[in-house]
Amino acid sequence: MRGPPARPGLRRSRTRSARCRRRPGPARRTARPPARRQLREFLAGHPGIGPAEPAGPAKEPRPDPWPRINPTDLAEVRAVRTTVRTVLEEAATDPAGTAVLINDGLRRSRATLALRNDHDRWWTEAVSDTDRCSAHLAATTLSALASVIAALGPARLGMCAGQACRGTFVDLSRNGSKQFCTRTCAHRASVAAYRSRGGRRRASPAPSSATADPPHDRR
Ligand SMILES: [Zn+2]
Predict the structure, then answer these.
(1) What residues form DSSP beta bridges with 123?
(2) What is the CA radius of gyration of the chain?
(3) Could you tell me the pTM of the whole model?
(4) What is the 89 CA–ligand 1 centroid distance (Å)?
């Protein structure tokens, strides 16, 4: 999970007249900070993250399990994000330490297995035995990463090889050769490598006609 983008210029961009026009009192007090709003939107977009439901036929849409996000929720979710990132960064080089981290996170989130049903499809997934959204996020993400490690090995979790990219990935490819988080990063690295080779060719002295290689053989 990436963190919410910083918006340092948001307040400074408001003019004095805009501040004067802004409605005072309750409207300002109830304004939800962007990070909390983003977390609300993330949870709303991932309805599978939440308390276990009784298995059965398709039912009415369940009520929102987290109608309000407070600063404590936000701090707890950020801590989970840090744990997940550490797992992704260190699994390949420190699998034993990563296993301790995952197991500790699952234990603290009180993860438990639940049987789900939706439109005649059944599956199991980890949910938290608490009412904390951070614990449900931890149970879902850490159990999923644990499943990848158990099925494919710890080397399938990694960091993007792109320059200046902090992206991470889970490599589900057949041969396990993934290096970049997205095609964009892979393409950018490919273009940079191509330009680097071209730059070296332009910087080297031109070979004499007697020893010159055909263009396609040049390194
Ligand atoms: Zn990347």
Answers:
(1) 116
(2) 25
(3) 0.71
(4) 13
Contacts for 73 with CB less than 8 Å, ≥ 6 apart: 36, 39, 66, 132, 133, 134
What is the distance in A from the centroid of ligand 1 to the CA of 189?
9
| C-alpha–C-alpha distance, residues 168 and 182, integer Å | 9
Sequence ranges of the domains in the chain: 69-155, 160-202
Q: What is the pLDDT of residues 79-113, one digit of tens each?
A: 999 999 999 999 999 999 999 999 999 999 999 99
Mind giving me the DSSP string for 39-102? HHHHHHH-TTSS------S--SPPPPS-S---HHHHHHHHHHHHHHHHHHHHTTT-HHHHHHHH
Instruction: Compute, in angstroms, the gap from residue 76 CA to the centroid of ligand 1.
Output: 26
Closest CA to 46 of 77, 10, 15: 77
